[in-house]
């Protein structure tokens, strides 16, 4: 069964099973991570577009299994723990491969108020690509993977206020890049 079919129907805002210690048996662990795998795939695709998302998620799950005893429910939810592992794996993979200029997944025109044309969608993808790494991570987590500010802060390893200010700075930068592009 692929990670996509396991995650079908999982709510992006659900927190999953009670945040206890990670299970020690492979079937229980698979069940414990199951509903989070879809979001892991979304984040993987955004953070490392040149890497096959399934491969990246599988590597993250393997690392999660190996380090399951380090999960501490007092420090966060299973979702944020797993997404942090995905972000770390993606960062390492990006370092090994050359970066592609346009992310693999960009927002659907129907999902943007007022709609975007194909050219505007590509422009937005290129604009996101110009952001500093920390801003890109915040945008990818919050806007593309649908994480909350709290979850994004956990993935980024910073405070909620830092996420909010980083997102504000990113929006300012994106607005300037898009306006500059449309003037030319």
Beta-sheet strand percentage?
Answer: under 5%
Number of helices: 9
Domain tally:
2
- On the 0-100 scale, what is the average pLDDT? 77
- Give the SSE order as H and E letters: HHHHHHHHH
**Proportion of residues in helical segments:** 55-70%
Quaternary structure: single chain
Would you identify the CATH H-level superfamily of the largest domain?
A: RNA polymerase sigma factor, region 2, helix turn helix motif
Report the major sheet.
Answer: none
- CATH top level of the largest domain? Mainly Alpha
Q: Write down the overall geometry.
A: elongated
Q: What is the CA-CA span between the terminal residues? A: 48 Å
Number of strands: 0
Low-confidence segments: 1-19, 98-121
Quickly give the CATH architecture of the largest domain: Orthogonal Bundle
User: How big is the Rg?
Assistant: 17 Å
Q: Could you describe the 3D structure shown?
A:
The chain contains 9 helices and no strands. With 184 residues, the chain is mainly α. It has 2 domains: 1-100, Orthogonal Bundle (Rna Polymerase Sigma Factor, Chain: A), CATH 1.10.1740; 108-184, Arc Repressor Mutant, subunit A. α4 (53-66) packs across α5, α6 (118-129) crosses α9 and α7 packs antiparallel against α8 (149-156). The N and C termini lie far apart (48 Å).
């Amino acid at each position: 069964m692929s990670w996509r079919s396991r995650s079908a129907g999982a709510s992006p805002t659900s927190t999953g099973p009670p945040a206890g210690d990670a299970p020690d048996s492979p079937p229980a662990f698979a069940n414990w991570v199951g509903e989070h795998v879809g979001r892991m795939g979304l984040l993987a695709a955004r953070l490392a577009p040149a890497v096959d998302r399934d491969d990246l998620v599988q590597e993250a799950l393997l690392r999660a299994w190996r380090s399951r005893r380090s999960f501490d429910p007092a420090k966060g939810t299973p979702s944020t723990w797993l997404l942090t592992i995905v972000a770390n794996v993606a960062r390492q993979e990006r370092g090994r491969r050359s970066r592609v200029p346009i992310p693999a997944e960009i927002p659907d025109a129907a999902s943007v108020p007022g709609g975007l044309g194909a050219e505007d969608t590509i422009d937005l993808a290129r604009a996101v690509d110009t952001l500093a790494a920390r801003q890109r991570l915040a945008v990818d987590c919050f806007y593309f993977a649908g994480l909350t500010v709290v979850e994004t802060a956990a993935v980024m390893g910073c405070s909620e206020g830092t996420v909010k200010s980083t997102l504000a700075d990113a929006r300012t930068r994106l607005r300037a890049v898009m306006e500059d592009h449309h003037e030319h």
